[in-house]
Design a protein that fits this description.
This protein is 33% helix and 26% strand. The strands form 3 sheets. Strands 3-4-5 form a 3-stranded antiparallel β-sheet, covered by helices on one side. It has a two-stranded antiparallel ribbon with strand order 1-2. Strand 1 and strand 2 form a beta hairpin. Helix 1 runs antiparallel to helix 2. It is extended, with a radius of gyration of 22 Å.
Length: 150
């Protein structure tokens, strides 16, 4: 049986929960609930105003609205240190041996294991990737919320 680390908000009951997902990122597990709730101000959603955010590699995202306005969101300044750290870790990891130890099994098959340093650097690299991904997701949520409010 699973227990929640934090209690659900007071407005959430079992009838308003529409979906539940368990997400694993690295060694961390989290639960994502999709809930249906009424707007606080009582207004109806306006389907005439819609904006779609498209994440890119060249720029951070591209927003296209239902009024045919397109907006480019430049790369974020606070993601640059993450990119530098990723490059450093990748260059160190690439100098390590990927096929370091040959393991022979009882059935006669063989398996190559990476070196301990490669494993350590790869774990660090995955952690930095996860942190960068969380930062960019949080910023996209913030932009979407601001676009909805304005």
């Amino acid at each position: 049986m699973l227990e929640l680390a934090e209690a659900l908000p007071s407005w959430a009951n079992h009838e308003c929960i529409r979906q539940c997902r368990i997400v694993k990122e690295g060694h961390l597990y989290s639960v994502v609930f999709s809930v249906e709730r009424a707007l606080a101000n009582g207004k109806q959603l306006s389907p005439s105003r819609v904006a779609a955010l498209d994440p890119n590699h060249k720029n951070f995202a591209y927003a296209v609205g239902s009024d045919s306005k397109a907006t480019e969101i430049k790369n974020l300044y606070f993601l640059k240190p993450f990119d530098k750290r990723i490059d450093q870790l990748k260059s160190k990891r690439d100098r390590c041996k990927r096929k370091s130890r040959l393991i022979s099994r009882l059935d006669g098959s063989h398996l190559w294991l990476p070196s301990r340093r490669w494993l350590m650097l790869n774990a660090r690299l995955q952690d930095v990737y996860r942190k960068r991904r969380e930062q960019s997701k949080q910023f996209l949520y913030t932009v979407a919320n601001r676009l909805y409010r304005d």
